[in-house]
Specification:
Elements (H helix, E strand, L loop, with lengths): L4 E7 L32 E5 L14 E3 L19 E5 L3 E5 L5 E5 L5 E5 L30 E8 L5 E4 L6 H8 L17 E5 L7 E5 L26 E7 L8 H15 L8 E6 L9 H11 L5 E4 L8 H13 L14 H4 L7 E6 L4 E6 H9 L5 H13 L2 H7 L7 E4 L2 E4 L3
Parallel strand pairs: 1-3, 2-4, 9-11, 9-12, 12-13, 13-14, 16-17
Antiparallel strand pairs: 1-8, 2-7, 5-6, 5-8, 10-11, 15-16, 17-18
Length: 429
């Protein structure tokens, strides 16, 4: 089953904690600190797999986690690094932050591999904190926390030309006629349920990739009909071929159809209405009598707007050569680079800049006040509490972050015990 959207959860690995230990060897009564560093957490990495063309696999697996780094050990032993997690996606996948919808990465063009989330760095062991005045530090640095995100994956096909139009106007027939693509063709609305790609090879002219976008209907930009699910695939195309049923085999007005679809494209993305567009007036072989009248009416409506009209028959092949060479000529004057969606969300900036929460509670069983939170854990890892300067910094941190105020609101008294990640302190103003 074709799938071009998926929502997943990703998490990088936490860095391993640094270790606290001291040399304990015969004839070395006062061995120094030898706690090893923690290992690095694994990264979340996206790579393009040319063998994939849908996001179907993500319907079955929605959570992806890299491995945490191992904690450091005694005798300066460094913890092992966590294993990266590799997530394979088809070319053309746009990765967005789910809540904001901002683009993090576009797996297109030369971007075949993207490190989306970095694993946390391992914490330093206590060997790093020995000084001339403090030769036996009893603390180590915790590893940096993991990063996590909810992602929205969207597959936007990579094609130079997009075929658009109402259902049953002959898009799939045209694609099968001018390329080696073999889409399923039948006379039912929305018989094409996935975009089909084909390569148009022309003698002495620029070849190009063409995509048959599933049929649209009025209201598609507002979510009406299946066509709304595929509007995103037109966003990368450089030229739009608008196919209309010139013979009105289903009783619709071909000129009104073109205006209706153009309104949907503009409502979905105003830039789409500015793309070069060509009209293919299809099914001229089914017009009773002369086709000159209806073709003349379509040309009178659209050629003054700079949109060329080509009468064609996708079944017989009439007029296709002229249409394809004209489109190739437009593309030859345009940049060869694919349409790439620029990054709007930067995890390393927007996530680390956020204020991590902390909690202040009273443990009645142990009769202690407990303060916990990721920011506090990191602060303890970086601060030498056994030095006067370090302890002053520690007190300022508690005050500036409102922790002392919360402790007082809970009724703390001088001499009461405050516990933070295994460290206990007596409270004094």
């Amino acid at each position: 089953m074709f799938a071009d959207r998926a929502k997943i959860y990703v998490r990088s690995g936490k860095g391993g904690d640094g270790h606290v230990s001291f040399r304990r060897e015969k004839y070395v009564p006062n061995g120094g600190p030898d706690g090893g560093d923690g290992g690095r957490g694994g990264d979340v990495i996206f790579v393009v797999d040319e063998g994939l063309n849908t996001l179907t696999d993500f319907r079955h697996i929605r959570k992806y986690k890299a491995m945490d780094g191992k904690d450091g050990g005694k005798r300066n032993c460094r913890g092992g690094d966590g294993e990266d997690i590799i997530i394979k996606v088809p070319a053309g996948t746009v990765i967005k932050e789910a809540e904001s919808g901002k683009v993090i990465a576009d797996m297109s063009g030369e971007n075949k591999r993207q490190v989306l989330l970095k694993g946390g760095k391992g914490g330093n062991g206590n060997q790093h904190y020995a000084t001339s005045s403090m030769q036996a530090p009893k603390y180590a640095q915790p590893g940096q926390p993991a990063q996590e995100l909810e992602l929205q994956l969207e597959l936007k096909v990579i094609a130079d030309v997009g075929l658009v139009g109402f259902p049953n106007v002959g898009k799939s027939t045209l694609l099968s006629r001018v390329t080696n693509a073999r889409p399923k063709i039948a006379n039912y609305h929305f018989t094409t349920l996935s975009p089909n790609l084909g390569v148009v090879d022309l003698n002495d002219a620029k070849s190009f990739v063409i995509a048959d976008i599933p049929g649209l209907i009025e209201g598609a930009s507002e979510g009406v009909g299946l066509g709304h699910e595929f509007l995103r695939h037109i966003e990368r195309t450089k030229v739009i071929i608008h196919i209309t049923d010139a013979a009105s085999t289903e009783g619709r007005d071909p000129i009104a159809d073109i205006h209706a679809i153009n309104r949907e494209l503009e409502r979905y993305n105003t830039r789409l209405s500015q793309r070069p567009q060509v009209i293919a007036a299809n099914k001229i072989d089914a017009i009773s009598g002369s086709d000159s009248e209806i073709i003349a009416a379509i040309r009178a409506e659209f050629e003054p707007r700079g949109i060329s009209v080509f009468p064609i028959s996708a079944v017989s092949g009439q007029g296709l050569k002229e249409l394809l060479y004209y489109v190739s000529g437009i593309l030859s004057k345009m940049d060869d680079k694919p349409t790439i969606f620029q990054q709007e969300f930067f995890p390393e900036i927007e996530m680390t800049g956020s204020q991590e929460p902390f909690s202040v509670i009273y443990d009645e069983e142990k009769q202690e006040y407990v303060v916990e939170g990721a920011r506090i854990e990191k602060m303890l890892g970086y601060t030498n509490l056994e030095s006067e300067k370090g302890f002053t910094f520690f007190q300022k941190f508690l005050k500036d972050n409102g922790i002392l105020e919360q402790l007082e609101d809970l009724g703390i008294q001088e001499g009461d015990t405050v516990r933070m990640y295994g460290l206990s302190f007596d409270y004094y103003k």
